[in-house]
Amino acid sequence: MYDVIVIGAGAAGLMAAATAARNGKKVLLMEKMEKAGRKIRISGKGRCNVTNARPPEEFKESIRTNADFFEVAFAEFNNKATIRLFERLGVKLDIERGQRVFPHSGKAWDIANALVDYCLDNEVEIAYNTRVNRILTLDGKIYGVTYINKRGFERKEEAENVIIATGGVSYPGTGSTGDGYIFADQVGHTIEEVRPSLTPLRTSHPQRKYLDGLRLKNIQARLIVEDEVVKEEFGEISFSDRGIEGAVALRVSRDAVDALIDEKRVKLVIDMKPALTEEMLQERIHREIEEMQPDEFFSELLRKLVPKHLVMPIAHEMDVHSKNYIRKITDAEINRLIKILKGFVFPITDYAPFEFAVVTAGGVRCDEVNKYTMESLKVKGLYFAGEVLDIDANTGGYNLQIAFSTGRLAGQLKK
Ligand SMILES: Cc1cc2nc3c(=O)[nH]c(=O)nc-3n(C[C@H](O)[C@H](O)[C@H](O)COP(=O)(O)OP(=O)(O)OC[C@H]3O[C@@H](n4cnc5c(N)ncnc54)[C@H](O)[C@@H]3O)c2cc1C
Predict the structure, then answer these.
(1) How far apart are the two ends of the chain, measured CA to CA in Å?
(2) What are phi and psi of 262, to 5 degrees?
């Protein structure tokens, strides 16, 4: 008989299991995949942005949903505590631009392996290839789970406490397929509508086919919903067959997705030259033209101003043939070019599905969970941790911190 069963060996489940075991509890951690922390291993492009080192009092600003609920778990185990823990576990960390914290080795595996070792050193038993298919309750109390074992047979395991740390539904290939929502729903919890967050955005721009592989640094992007600017971001953007991505696009994606779900008109307007005013840009363009031969093409002027992927889209947008001679370009056309460089409009008509979303927005409603313990307010002995909860944040190491803080608190099994 175990004191606690933790469902899911992701960031939240590993932290919860190790915490409970450190406090002397007999812990069984059940993971349906063949290894732990598959999502951690691919996080931060394989480097794992494990947390963010900005002052704890500023942390809340980057939590998008239920920041007040999260505050208690964060106070219990904050970003500084995460950094201390990993260094104690032997993972040297570096702080990079934007206060993002990464393992010095550049390997996300080091974070996942350190958490697994943290569990094993504290005598957590880990059962891999073991999929929980039901949680068992009686008279408003949890008493265990049933699961499908590695041979495909259903078995039962009893425990007075169960922690659901099954994650969301993004990148389902890592094992996060939303099982926790079903368990929670079955015992009377409400699930806040789930939707992709930090996900590539899709444009209906007629020239989008030219943009695959384009990466723009230091741009200013405005997200416009129904003619109103709802978000402004500075940084990098890129284009691929998944859609418009890169830090800037991902940061505005949460608002864009919500607006698209509500069938609102959404645009992403990109200023490709934010450091230059229109007047400065005009001077620059005239300078470039003066240095060119009159029989050079307009496309060659554009190549001096933007990456090649943008030549055709800008020429189309201006309704000027790219093979026009530069001597034939009028002042009115130069003014149009300036407007486009300062505000290229991408109509946003869709977003990439959960398969490509970094996190899931929505999940188990926080007002049905005790924020001081992470215990369910509906079922005694049932706890939640990590992305399964309706908490999500921006990019920058915040989402893993949510998993660590809520995992730590849930693992304390406070009543
Ligand atoms: C590509 C990518 C990159 C990311 N990069 C970063 C980053 O650099 N920094 C950052 O802060 N965040 C990042 N995130 C987000 C972050 O990884 C997640 O928010 C975080 O890992 C969630 O942790 P979790 O433990 O709640 O859930 P998960 O990591 O999803 O873990 C849930 C676990 O539960 C298991 N499970 C599910 N159902 C069952 C069941 N029925 N029985 C048994 N086991 C089950 C799953 O197999 C899985 O192992 C990234 C996400 C993605 C997809």
Answers:
(1) 20
(2) -85, 10
Count how many residues are written for the chain: 415
Q: Which residues contact 356 (CB under 8 A, 6 or more apart)?
A: 170, 171, 196, 199, 200, 242, 243
Closest residue to atom 33 of ligand 1, CA basis: 8
In angstroms, the CA 410 to CA 162 distance is 10
Q: Which domains does the chain have, with CATH numbers?
A: 2-195+355-411 (3.50.50.60), 200-352 (no CATH)
Cα–Cα distance measured from residue 413 to residue 321, given in angstroms and rounded to the nearest whole number: 68
Tokens (6 digits) for 323: 């093979």
Q: Give dist(CA 250, CA 255) in Å, integer.
A: 10
How far apart CA 220 and CA 275 sit, in angstroms, is 9
What is the tens place of the pLDDT at every residue in 88-129?
A: 999 999 999 999 999 999 999 999 999 999 999 999 999 999
For residue 4, the CA-to-ligand 1 centroid distance in Å is 21
Distance 211 CA to ligand 1 centre (A): 31
